[in-house]
Amino acid sequence: MLNTHFERDADLFEEPIRVSRMTTVDNRFEINCSICNQLFYTDIDSIAQINRAVELGFDNPFVCDGCAENYEMLSHSR
Ligand SMILES: [Zn+2]
């Protein structure tokens, strides 16, 4: 299990992180958007993915939909 981390680095940010605005049965873990810092809730798989990224020395890779859209617009308008 451990030695798969590095091979999977490239995938780390491509798996969609499932979030909701409020806690649900699955989404019980708090997560903040790394850009706007709004609070969302996510499931155990996604929080594990974030924690893994942070352990590897990355910043919180979660960006909410709103910020992701803005970011896309910014990168296209250059
Ligand atoms: Zn955001």
Explain what you see:
The chain has 78 residues and is α+β, with helices and mostly antiparallel strands. It has one domain (2-76). The protein has helices at residues 44-55, 65-76; strands at 19-20, 29-32, 39-42. A 3-stranded antiparallel β-sheet has the order 1-3-2. The longest helix is centred in the middle third of the chain and has 12 residues, at 44-55. The radius of gyration is 13 Å and the shape is globular. 10% of the residues are buried. The structure holds zinc ion (ZN). Zinc ion binds at residues 33, 35-36, 38, 63-64, 66-67.
Taken in chain order, the helices and strands follow as EEEHH
Fraction of helical residues:
25-40%
**Strand fraction:** 5-15%
Main beta-sheet strand count, sense and barrel state: 3 strands, antiparallel
Low-confidence stretches: none
**Category from helices, strands and their pairing:** alpha+beta
Number of helices: 2
Question: How many β strands by DSSP?
Answer: 3
- Give the CA-CA distance, first to last residue: 41 Å
Judging from the principal axes of the Cα atoms, what is the shape?
Answer: globular
- Strand order, main sheet: write it out: 1-3-2
Radius of gyration: 13 Å
